[in-house]
Specification:
The chain is an alpha+beta fold. Helices cover 26% and strands 44% of the residues.
Length: 163
């Protein structure tokens, strides 16, 4: 399964890239993240492998994330016209996914974030879920992007709404 989501954020591309790359921000905009810890490497750098634990309802899912691309490596003073890119793979029981994020400058104060996602399923249960509810994956990805936009533009933390 493959799909593309996008959103415009009312901040300069360099600031958006820095906020996305900062590990202290993950739980502020990704709902359900309980833990995101590097196992090897430095958080956010190419080659880094991290343990990610997510909660969905009463179920916890443990994944392994590997950063496969980060361009430019230095997120300060990104030259005009350069597209910032973040790619990562996630592996969980019965599932593999790849996300390719691109940040482009719409104008000096607006950034377009495009996120291309691809999922492959090997377990019977995950294949059934993907067949029955394919829009759920796309909708959840768009929700993460909207939550990031609210966090980046207004400082809204998704955990503030949790009970």
């Amino acid at each position: 399964m493959k799909y593309l989501n996008s959103i415009e954020i009312d901040l300069p591309r360099e600031r958006v890239a820095q906020l996305l790359a900062d590990p202290a921000n993950i739980q502020k905009w990704v709902r359900g993240v309980i833990l995101h810890e590097p196992l090897t490497g430095t958080h956010g750098q190419v080659g880094t492998t991290s343990r990610v634990v997510l909660r969905s309802g009463k179920q916890e899912i443990e994944c392994t994330e590997t950063v496969t691309r980060r361009e430019p490596a230095d997120l300060h003073d990104i030259p005009t016209g350069v597209v910032a890119r973040f790619d990562r793979e996630m592996v969980a029981p019965g599932m593999w996914s790849m996300t390719r994020d691109r940040l482009t400058e719409v104008d000096r104060g607006t950034t377009r974030w495009e996120s291309e996602s691809e999922y492959r399923f090997s377990g019977l249960m995950m294949r059934l879920i993907a067949l029955v509810m394919p829009r759920t994956f796309r909708t959840q990805s768009q929700q993460h992007m909207q939550d990031f936009k609210e966090f980046a533009e207004h400082g809204k933390d998704v955990r503030d709404g949790e009970n």
